[in-house]
Amino acid sequence: MADPTAPPALxxxxxxxxFGGFTAVDGVDLTLAAGGSLAVVGESGSGKTxxxxxxxxxxxxxxxxxxxxxxxxxxxRVRGGARLRWAKEVQMVFQDPYSSLDGRQRIGDCVAEALxxxxxxxxxxxRERVAALLDQVGLDERQAVALPRALSGGQRQRAALxxxxxxxxxxxxxxxxxxxxxxxxxxxxxxxxxxxxxRTGVAYLFITxxxxxxxxxxxxxxxxxxxxxxxxGPAEAVLRAPRHPYTRELLDSVPRHGWKPTRRTTPNGxxx
Length: 272
Fold this sequence. Notes:
The protein is α/β, with parallel strands linked by helices. The chain contains eleven helices and twelve strands. Helix 4 crosses helix 5 (123-136) and helix 4 (107-118) runs parallel beside helix 7 (153-165).
């Protein structure tokens, strides 16, 4: 759980990203508490995934600062060692685990590779750590020797989590990590994420378009639209009494008992 006495795990200020003449992210500020969980919510094109990629080091910002545990992200000119240290502190889990796993590599070897890259573990100690990580996410010896194609979608996402957690990151960026799963598997992964955060103290940056899953995972919410932040606050407060019309629209689109898929609320009122 979040530690209010510790420095923020992540502190982002004035983050901006331009692609040619298009501004995908415009002046985003956010703070993720140590051991906390922050949801960045918005529809496709809101800038939430670009924000995640900037924080994870997969894109370079046009402007702004990204600080992790008080240290700024290294510049492009910094040698590989500094960039590798950043990668160890910030790990990312994607929506489609199959595309992020090597289809020719057994699951246990995939986790072992991450450990060998970032730690000094070798031999029996390495194998023991791999087994412990897979057990932590609910995978056993059979899945450890399987290729990704032999696993279900939920099992592949568990494997991706094990690999990301292998190096004990400070921040885990989860980009639509449950969006591709059916409802029952979603619930299992959400429960697993809550248990892992409680046990390890890792902080989550949870990227999603679905406010329906936020209350089960996140302490705080930041809502983005067209690259800018339109609302932020504690998850329960934002979900119970949203202030911005766009947030209300997102909430009204969450399926619930009696929900009609043809009905959609817009900032100007309900439409059919």
